[in-house]
Specification:
The protein is of the alpha/beta class. It has a domain of 178 residues: Vaccinia Virus protein VP39 (Rossmann fold, 3-Layer(aba) Sandwich). Helices cover 38% and strands 24% of the residues. The chain has nine helices and seven strands, in the order H-H-E-H-E-H-E-E-H-E-H-H-E-H-H-E. It has a seven-stranded mixed beta sheet, with helices on both faces. Strand 4, helix 5 and strand 5 form a beta-alpha-beta unit. Helix 1 crosses helix 8 and helix 5 packs across helix 7. The longest helix has 21 residues.
Length: 259
């Protein structure tokens, strides 16, 4: 399970980023839209009770509401400042941990989570998802794979050996966690999304504004000197495209069902 000190740092970064999150979350909205596009619901029915696990400011819940207006949507997030901004999209909101949900077994028809699992112990999160789903309930999730921020890692490798991004997992790890949770009908879709920025400072600011800066062990201690910063800028410039400096997101969309 994710250690408490790291969880606390993650929560604190998202608390601080709540006010800037929506203005900087272009890729998060794009991935959320893709997750909903690929989510099928057989027989023309509709889920009655939906959990948005890691709901943030409520963008995903808004899309779910438009698709299924009659559904009751609950949202959890461990950053209360994010939850405060999501009030219009949700029927109920709770500050809670994806790895330890405050709901009875069989409470939901759909467990949804977009770009939250990379901060979690995936096995624990999927065990809890399976527990709170009723028979035939479904999971829809998106997370990030190791190709995310490849350009950023390559640029920083020019100056040190510290880790400057989260250690994202391969799709096989997600599949294994789903199987271990007793889930079936697993469908995984891997795709690349790229966002362009005019310069490196703007790119890094956009990451900070959504609360996604590196908070794990192994990150670079202290501030970066001017000379080191110039080296990183020069290294990143080698990736420049006509639309600007790219930030790559290696995205996994996943779907499964409970027996």
């Amino acid at each position: 399970m994710t250690s408490v000190p790291i969880k606390r740092r993650v929560r604190d970064t998202f608390e601080r980023a709540a006010a800037t999150y929506d203005s900087a979350a272009a890729i998060q909205r794009r991935v959320c839209d893709r997750l909903l596009e690929e989510l099928s619901w057989e027989d023309g029915g509709a889920p009655e009770n939906i959990l948005d696990a890691g709901c943030g400011t409520g963008y995903g819940a808004g899309g779910l509401r438009r698709r299924w207006p009659g559904a009751r949507i609950s949202g959890i997030d461990f950053a209360p400042a994010m939850l405060a901004l999501a009030r219009g999209a949700l029927d109920r909101r709770l500050a809670a941990d994806i790895e330890k949900l405050p709901f009875a077994a069989g409470s939901f028809d759909l467990w949804w989570s977009s770009l939250s699992l990379q901060w979690c112990d995936t096995r624990a999160a999927f065990r809890e998802a399976a527990r709170v789903l009723g028979p035939g309930g479904r999971i829809a999730f998106s997370t990030l794979c190791p190709g995310t921020f490849a350009e950023l890692r390559a640029a920083f490798a020019e100056i040190d050996r510290h880790r400057h991004t989260l250690p994202f997992s391969e799709p096989d790890a997600a599949r294994d966690a789903l199987v271990r949770a007793g889930l079936r009908e697993i469908r995984l879709i891997r795709e690349k999304h790229t966002v362009f920025h005019p310069d490196l400072k703007t790119l890094l600011r956009s990451v900070k504004d959504i609360g996604a800066q590196n908070v794990g062990e192994g990150r670079r201690p202290g501030m970066m000197g001017r000379s080191a910063w110039r080296k990183v800028e020069a290294a990143y410039e080698r990736f420049r495209a006509p639309d600007g400096l790219p930030a790559s997101y290696d995205v996994l969309l996943g779907y499964a069902a409970r027996s």
